[in-house]
Design brief:
This protein has 153 residues and is an alpha+beta fold. The protein is 18% helix and 45% strand.
Length: 153
């Protein structure tokens, strides 16, 4: 999985910028974010899905797990059977998006997100899924799961 993602990113980076449609460039900029955690900063992509009721949008972010790994902490809790157990929880991270007009950064939007899925960098796929605390993004990354990937450029 990690190799597939890396290959897709390299393919996108190999496309000359002048060959890209302006709408595509704007779309990619609108779904690209920076994820900031105590231990580092990394890139991320926003995608929007409906909640379990199917009526509300939920903004999710996809980033590398090593970006948010320093936000992980162990929490003790009392289980139903009376024993003390431990679980891993994450502190919130900050997600920012640059506002770009006519090729220039004119501002930054900042949001708080929670880590809802995590796959360790050493023993997993090095991926983390974030949920923004409030739905603010209208654009979304599109995943081509059952169809051919459209040509870029």
């Amino acid at each position: 999985m990690k190799h597939i993602i890396l290959a897709l990113l390299l393919c996108l980076l190999a496309v000359p910028v002048f060959a890209l449609d302006t709408n595509l460039v704007q779309h990619l900029q609108s779904i690209s974010v920076t994820v900031q955690a105590d231990g580092g900063t990394g890139s991320g992509t926003i995608f929007t899905r409906k909640d379990s009721t199917g009526s509300n949008d939920v903004n999710l972010g996809w980033t590398a797990a090593h970006v948010v790994s320093d936000m992980k902490m162990e929490q003790s809790y009392l289980a139903d059977d009376g024993t003390t157990r431990k679980r891993m929880v994450f502190r919130d991270v900050k997600v920012t998006r640059s506002i770009i007009r006519n090729g220039r950064v004119v501002g930054v939007e900042s949001y708080i997100a929670e880590v809802i899925k995590y796959s360790d960098a050493d023993t997993g796929e090095d991926l983390a899924i974030l949920r923004l605390r409030t739905p603010v993004f209208t654009n979304s990354a599109r995943f081509y799961l059952d169809e051919g990937i459209p040509p870029v450029g």
